[in-house]
Specification:
Blueprint: H1 2-12, H2 26-32, E1 37-39, E2 65-68, H3 70-78, E3 82-98, E4 113-125, E5 131-136, E6 141-146, E7 151-154, H4 166-177, H5 186-201, E8 205-209, H6 214-227, E9 231-237, H7 245-256, E10 261-265, H8 267-274, H9 280-301, E11 305-309, H10 314-320, E12 346-348, H11 356-365, H12 370-373, H13 393-412, E13 421-435, E14 438-451, E15 459-460, H14 465-478, E16 482-487
Parallel strand pairs: 1-2, 2-7, 8-9, 8-11, 9-10, 11-12, 14-16
Antiparallel strand pairs: 3-4, 3-5, 5-6, 6-7, 13-14, 14-15
Helix pairs in contact: 5-6, 5-11, 6-11, 8-9, 13-14
Amino acid sequence: QYTQLIARRVRELKVYCEIRPCGIPLDEIRAFHPIGLILSGGPASVYDRGAPGAPRELFALGVPVLGICYGMQLMAHVLGGAVRPSENREYGPALVHPLAPSELLAGLDATALPVWMSHGDRVEAPPPGFARLAVSEGQALAAMGDPARKLYAVQFHPEVVHTPRGREILQNFLSRICGAQGRWTMGSFVGEAVRRIREQVGRGKVICALSGGVDSSVTVMLVHRAVGEQLTAIFVDNGLLRAGEADRVEALFRRHYRINFVRVDARKRFLDRLQGVTDPEEKRRIVGTTFIEVFEEEAERIAGVTFLAQGTLYPDVIESTSTRGPSAIIKTHHNVGGLPPGMDLKLVEPLRELFKDEVRQLARELELPEEIIRQHPFPGPGLAVRIVGEVTEERLERLRQADQIVVEELRRAGAYDAVWQGFAVLLSVKSVGVMGDFRTYEEVIAIRAVTSTDGMTADWARLSHDLLGRMASRIINEVRGVNRVVYDLSSKPPSTIEWE
């Protein structure tokens, strides 16, 4: 997970970067002509069997290298230093004391720098030619460098917000050591993404999975900018959408942007497949498989289609499948880990290295309307994973009404833009209630609202009691079949943002 965060910080400093697996051949690195390399952290020990490695020749390419956490231990191990298990492991906040002036820590004159540690091993002795640049409170080596070869390493994580001056350390590596000029922007990303799409697609035709969310909307706009009439945007009305969503999407892309647009009414097929299904992973699999089925059928109606474009983001990737090393699989998702092996279309995923906040920046570069840019994320399987238990048309309509009330009240209170996501969840339990003189036994709605910057971590939103009260009162009064509303106080981790 930290790997992508490092890349994100580098891009925030206006330097273009790409993530590569640690096993990449040296010839591929040379062909990329990098001005610098960063070796990321990871959970392994350099002495573990099968631990991620790097050849000694990597450090002789004449390219500056920065090792972070495990990257520091690996650099020390490969170049002749000593790495040992720590007697006292360091996890969380720590203080680091600079020992000597260096390009890496230039401008950081504090006698003690607060940082974020996360390691069980330590570099006992730096390799030959390396100077000790900083130590932790317990005198463990926290930073080292070989200025002659422009090889540097830190034991802590400069990329996380809990290392307050980490941005300056990364900036020093990029500008002072690598000579980066910091001229890359999201505008640059647009040009690069368009170029790559054109290279990948050539003269082929593309169908694009358009949901109307910011991710798929940006994908449609990028692909359309790259290949124009070769793109057909296909909007699948799967019956699992929010209130009025299908009509809004069609009006924007067909009538306003005049993009080739196909609206497919597949509501009955999705609901038939979901009948009686309660397991959340099975729901995701069914929605994903049916989704791809529909696309393949539409592809057959459009001569020459060989590509499927999707708005996959990096949090989807790292939570769905281990594509770049030993990251744990957290969930399946219809556009990353769950594609049927026999799918006839090749994927175009121009956003898969980006976080949500970066995609929103990109949307503004593409001049998408603010209502698209600022809308809250919506899961690929739609309301199917916001209904705990069986998905039926009756329960979907109940949830749609409750969800619309939550969004309306967030907007009315000026809180919509302050939260990352705010929505309703229909639970699988019923509760006893009293309405008038009658006893009721009806369903329960949970309100979920979280704050986040990228969806990787999230905290429950501290909404005012008055706002929550208005939401609950309206839901109980206006949504038939609901007699109780609760508020979710869980953070991610350990919970996920969605309930399923």
